[in-house]
Amino acid sequence: MKLLHVVGARPNFPKLAPVSRQARAVGVDQIVVHTGQHYDDAMSAAFFRDLGLRPPDINLDVGSATHAVQTARVMERFEPVLLQHRPDWTVVYGDVNSTLAATLVAAKLGFRVAHVEAGVRSGDRSMPEEINRIVTDRLADLLLTPSRSADKTLRAEGEPDEEIMFVGNVMVDALLYSVQRARTIGFRRRLGLSTAPVTVTLHRPANVDDPKRLTAIMAALREVAAKRPVVFPVHPRTRGQLELGRFDVGSVKLIDPVSYLEMLDLVEGSHAVITDSGGLQVESTALGVPCLTVRDTTEWPETIECGANRLVPDPAEIPGAIASMARLDDPPRPEGWDGMAAVRALDCLRTR
Amino acid sequence: MHLLHVVGARPNLPKLAPVYRAAARRPALTQTVVHTGQHYDDALFASLLADLALPEPDINLGVGSASHAVQTARILERLEPIVTNQRPDWVVIYGDVNSTAAAAVVAAKLGIRSAHVEAGLRSGDRTMPEEINRIVADRLASLLLTPSRDADETLRAEGEPECEIAFVGNVMIDSLLEALPRARALARPRGHALVTLHRPSNVDDRSRLSSLMRALRDVAAERPVVFPVHPRTRDRLEQWGIESGAVQTVEPVGYLEMVALMDAAHAVITDSGGVQEETTALGVPCLTVRETTERPITVTAGTNRLVHDPLTLPALVRDAVRPRVLPVIEGWDGSAGERVVHALIAGDLP
């Protein structure tokens, strides 16, 4: 059996890593195609090593562009690769443009597609990720879900039962695999923090492209920073917005983007996390660190149900919420957050 | 309210025409037609526009023919700036071609609503590229304009919300009924068997194409057989040395000529979706050489029949009879285009 994995952006790699490791462990042939949607210096050999991944076999170098242009470039460049390698499964991850583009190409050529992290929905179609998810799930032949609620979503969308397989959360696999090593790198110590910080990540257009919104968020972060350290690894996009608008960052500590292991170390030692990322909601919950999600919706309801995550659409509520939050004694473990999701995913792929 | 229609291939035009005309009758509506240029056979395209009383498209993207992925990619790239600039109230997409799926993706990503004319059709066969285009378009469109009640049911079973589904009827039948008096004025001789074949499963498989042609030669021994041949299929026939015998292989025909040939036919042999519907509306027996149909109503109406084995065609053609009474099908009344525009206006209200 041969798998052809398609990844395109940073958040895809922690999802790919456990699946690819398990494929290697059970002796399945595989090829990793990186479309190059995101490409930055942080995605070096060290980045792959942190995740226990080999560098991708094929790089399509599509670069950044509008959604339509980026999707188009992936389609054009991926089609010949797929025809050359003719895998038994094209495995796509998450919700980026490459996920949709590769699925569309494979469906047209009659190649089977498996979607890792299927059935995840925010319910908000103004998010480009939501469009990518719903098209991918409709076309994929095997829907590998991270939660029972994702199964239910897919059934309600009329997907046949035999295509839906609950495997659990592969991001948690990656986290459990790496967390011990993250504890040894001493990243927090290097930052010279006196007490447990609040870690912030923001990248969604709804938060960082609207100057009024970003001003309100930064005001809230300055208030939080008056009481405890606030560390904000800044996405290049966001740094651009901050510098362009000359926002007052106060004592908020802006740092360069961090590696996967550095982020795990930072989050694990944090008092709380403030984010608009999907992955970080899962990771902070798995580490038992309270999370405030600066959005109206989440595609990870299980993080809220277990009490670790809270939606704060209004930035003014952030300081109060931070003060009232405490770390959870035991990290929550929703069903399928057991580090075995990729093992189950490979079982599904091999028995079909 | 501004409509941006996206069409890409010839079969889209008889669907666009009634919607375009109904919108043009309302002074408050403005509209732009974007032709992606998937089919670039200009002579035939121009004659189709004339037959359907459609103006030249406002914008031609000139994508030309290519693999599915490359063609879809070019449409994505070239359409996005147009939709961004025009910011229409609706992107209106038609049928099941690559342009249909690509335009749905572009609109959805830009947060602009799209309306799919001929939503909810399914063959159930995902090896057909059209099926992929249909399910992507229906998943993303905000308004699903269906030609039949069974299409409504299909969309409901796929979890589409009730408020997005609107039964409008069959727009192609609008075009057919509009063109029929002019087509009959051509007074074509009656009694022939008319053939159209274009699907890869029929024309790209050598043994399948030769057994189809053998059957057609047998039919031609009993009555005239008229076969307007797609250039690609003509190449195949020559390349594989398949004899046409008495079968009259002619150049592709325009819309009016096609309606006239269907209307005057004893029976029609086809693998096209549209022809199955048009023959049903005309009460002409249709033999569909495919395993599945996305238009089951044509079979239940009694005029259409799926034929799996080409060798049975000669007997089936011989035995074909027109129904005594034309089938009456809900929404096949020539007013579907009006209902489409109604639904677009109603859907635009806050």
Characterize the structure shown:
The complex is a heterodimer of chains A (352) and B (350). Chain A is of the alpha/beta class and 352 residues long. Chain A has 2 domains: 2-168 and 337-350, Rossmann fold (3-Layer(aba) Sandwich); 178-324, Glycogen Phosphorylase B (Rossmann fold, 3-Layer(aba) Sandwich). Helices cover 46% and strands 14% of the residues of chain A. Chain A has a 7-stranded parallel β-sheet with strand order 3-2-1-4-5-6-7, with helices on both faces. A 6-stranded parallel β-sheet of chain A has the order 10-9-8-11-12-13, with helices on both faces. In chain A, helix 10 (211-225) runs parallel beside helix 15. Chain B has 350 residues and is an alpha/beta fold. Chain B has 2 domains: 2-170 and 332-348, Rossmann fold (3-Layer(aba) Sandwich), CATH 3.40.50.2000; 182-319, Glycogen Phosphorylase B (Rossmann fold, 3-Layer(aba) Sandwich), CATH 3.40.50. Chain B has helices spanning 13-24, 42-51, 68-86, 98-110, 129-140, 149-157, 171-184, 200-203, 206-220, 231-239, 255-263, 273-282, 296-300, 313-319, 336-348, and strands spanning 2-7, 30-35, 59-60, 90-94, 114-117, 143-146, 165-167, 193-196, 225-228, 248-250, 267-270, 286-288, 304-306. Chain B has a 7-stranded parallel β-sheet with strand order 3-2-1-4-5-6-7, with helices on both faces. In chain B, helix 1 packs across helix 7 (171-184) and helix 1 (13-24) crosses helix 15. Classes of the chains: A alpha/beta (352), B alpha/beta (350).
